[in-house]
Design goal:
Layout lengths: L1 E2 L17 H4 L9 E2 L1 H4 L9 E4 L3 H5 L4 E4 L6 H18 L4 E3 L10 E3 L7 E3 L3 H8 L4 E3 L3 H10 L3
Parallel strand pairs: 1-2, 5-8
Antiparallel strand pairs: 3-4, 6-7
Helix pairs in contact: 4-5
Length: 157
């Protein structure tokens, strides 16, 4: 599975994309299943920017953090729904790993923004990344592309 924005799909919150040529080139090595958990959760594109307030994706799942838009609207349930839908697709289609957009409140792996909309990052995963990891699906970000490519060729990160 791959974040659709990394493949050039216009699904980013602002209506843009995060096309990454090296990620797109992985189609030569693997079948890529594009996903956008935020759209799968029912959110429109474009949509207000959102960040996790009070922690990371793991904290959202344990009920101690929420996903808020820049205007203060709570989008937690839509983000959680999108994560569940992404897992359903992964399970149904037999996905072996996920390559997700770094620092996204849905897809971030290893770090996400801190909920202040100031560009400050904290350690942790986005909501979908945390959910997929809890299901034992390997997750990588485009910042970890070398590790992802090694995993594709050897099954080891």
């Amino acid at each position: 599975m791959v974040s659709a924005c990394l493949l050039g799909a216009h699904v980013k919150y602002c209506g843009g994309h995060n096309h990454h040529a090296a990620v797109s080139a992985l189609k030569e090595k693997a079948i890529l299943i594009p996903i956008c958990p935020e759209q799968l959760g029912g959110l429109a594109t474009p949509r207000p920017a959102a960040e996790i307030k009070g922690g990371s994706g793991e904290d959202v799942w344990n009920g101690t953090a929420r996903v808020l838009t820049v205007t203060g609207e709570d989008r937690t349930e839509a983000f959680k729904h999108g994560a569940r839908e992404a897992w359903l697709l992964a399970e149904t289609l037999g996905a072996q790993a996920a390559l997700l957009k770094a620092r996204s409140p849905s897809c971030g792996h290893g770090e996400v923004y801190d909920g202040t909309f100031s560009g400050v990052k904290i350690n942790g995963d986005g909501i979908t990344a945390a959910f997929l990891l809890s299901k034992k699906l390997p997750v990588f970000s485009e910042d970890e592309l070398a590790h992802c490519e090694k995993w594709l060729s050897t099954g080891e990160s």
